[in-house]
């Protein structure tokens, strides 16, 4: 609510208000993490601040929650059953073991460092992935209550619940109208089986998908909200997504399009948004400079200042190259020998989900103009199509992993369904089927060898009775750890049964001994503490 007041946005929707609240909390927590840890002292500050805001905004908060309860009561009974069912399975999914590889390499560790020390100088020298330090991990660190319990890295569950609640509300409105054309976001629960895989780990991909759905929805309904409001909403959500992960940069084109086409209408709010965008950009630059030494990591060709804790350029370049090799599933020698055509062919013919979604993205580039060329809102769909094309091109030359561009694929899947399948009863039945499939996935182990080469992620994670009381730990791996001394650095590392980048839920400071040995042998660097205090960070010591 306070975020809306500051931005002067008139929104009476509980779910939208909550998303803007997450944005405001992320900015506040990011500012705090520059100077201190996100721990009990931050929550004391937050408690006092929320108490003051509740006092001054009591009337607005009361109206918001009254409308929210009214919305829930007004849902048709099948929609209420669906919402209740998805809410329950979301809680169950949040309590299960995480099912994302990156969670074991840097999600857990990034959040741990934020909880115990805030942003730490040169932390990327300990493990290159820690240089990513997503803004979403700042948000998660602010709301995992690590001082009370160590198993609450499940903010993604709340994020998806808010999106599903918004979707059911819009679907209910469409059910009660005579129109045959439904809003695409109302059938979003059809994607639940895919989206639920991002719930039990703090992956920034899920909130980016949520921001994308909301941006496209507002963009389609811009005539009903007014252009100044639409510009502010799309701008804030796009900036939020970019702060969580720069691969979402194409979303900024939505508010840019509105600015270019409706400049006279939105110019009154332009200064306000410029200040906000500048603040978020400053936070992004500060965060990256602290953890890696580079303001726009993984870009290492530019620095505002030279710092002693900067990540060595060869290691930073190695990290960036590895992300591309993963996307093409090849070695560096193979990648260097590929022509542009070879790279493209390999990209769309990869095995498993990677090749499927890569090929689907290319197919969409050809069929969207044909399929949607004669439909209502075709101009708006055309803008979404162009922005999707820009994102695909940008990512193809940087890090073309399907999870970075699947947000637009999902949008067009929903648009296709809603335009060609207009029977409301069938759509309702499909949403119940979606809930049933999630329940099956949650209660039965299913082999996934064809989707993942990682031996630790070849079966899905299931809910156990024990999780009713005790959520699963933040790591899905039962790794054991050893303490190793390297110069002035005493660190924890998984034993011999770990993969190259894996750290898991090791105590701080932690990295992987195989990774350190590799960087020492091939690049001649080892991480060392800058002082005797971990809070002062790390630097890369040249040994040869």
From TrEMBL:
Keywords: Membrane, Transmembrane, Transmembrane helix
Keyword Membrane: yes
Location of the DUF8201 domain: 2-410
Lineage: superkingdom: Bacteria
A Pfam family this chain is assigned to: DUF8201
Bilayer-crossing regions: 14-34, 40-58, 79-101, 152-169, 181-199, 230-257, 269-286, 344-368, 380-398, 404-421, 426-443
Protein known as: DUF8201 domain-containing protein
Species per Swiss-Prot/TrEMBL record: Flavobacterium faecale
Source species taxonomy: Bacteria, Pseudomonadati, Bacteroidota, Flavobacteriia, Flavobacteriales
